[in-house]
Amino acid sequence: MALAVAVYSNSERIDLAGTEIRTGNLRTSRKSCVRGSMPNVLVDSGPLAALFNRRDHHHQRSLDYFRRNGDELKCHTTWEVVSEVMYLLDFSAEAQASFLDWIFDGSEQGLMKVASLAPEDLPGLAQLIRKYSDRPMDMADASLVWLANKTGITDIITVDRADFSVYRTNRRKAFRNVF
Known about the structure:
alpha/beta; Rossmann fold; 8 strands; 40% helix; 16% strand; globular
């Protein structure tokens, strides 16, 4: 079973199957990240925010990507990325709430994993932020590099090509943008 994604835009929601659903109605389609022996992939804030905002210039690309590949991925992200998406969706409480519902549904179904940092992880993140101070690296990006170090996953869905082409894991492994 796949995870439904409803995309908010101008008082309507659109699922990944392309069906328009008026705000307030239930989602009717299921599509996105699925469980099984699928490839693990990290997910950055840009494509997630774009899914829930039709006005985002990456919206169509994100929608097309998840339509085409969603049934083949196991998605992993962090609460820092979730927080950044909430900030990017601050134009609409409905978009924010739909995004949180989507994350909850995916987590409950084991389709989307959201990792939590612990206090003992903070010195490592501070070190990363200092290392990439010329970029500069934000907390969401640092948390994804931390997650890559923890899980070994280096395939990533991101619109942030410039930064993730520079970032490396502790083992000097490069990220591969699959978006």
